[in-house]
């Protein structure tokens, strides 16, 4: 008989100090399940590539758990959907890195803060969320002036359609 385990993970960001996320996941869940709850909780869009990394003692990335099967041979390489958390999480205080922006080498840091034995969890669960997550892709912060300009252009376009209608059918008379 195998032991059922629930992992408590703390997720932080080195660039957004007030961001703090805690999740619970079953050891039988895949890394893709963990990826999905992080995406949902942070508001990240799922079309961006991401990977988990398990670092060595010095923090150097050793094992990659990738979202996509890139067909890489050799090295410690795993696929999120095929790899259970219990396959790679070995002990309390286990560290992981969740890289969500490869171009700018930006990541979230995960730390295993507790393990509960003999408990079952069907879905990953967010137990705490504080602060704002970092933006997923740099340069995507909303620009207030640009948004206002786009809204003004939309209004002008709407009136343009009305002008075309008047040209085709003439002015409408008020009754």
From TrEMBL:
Recorded hits in InterPro entries, A to Z, give: MM3350-like_sf, Plasmid_pRiA4b_Orf3-like
The record places domain Plasmid pRiA4b Orf3-like at 22-146
Protein name per UniProt: Plasmid pRiA4b Orf3-like domain-containing protein
Native organism is Mariniphaga sediminis
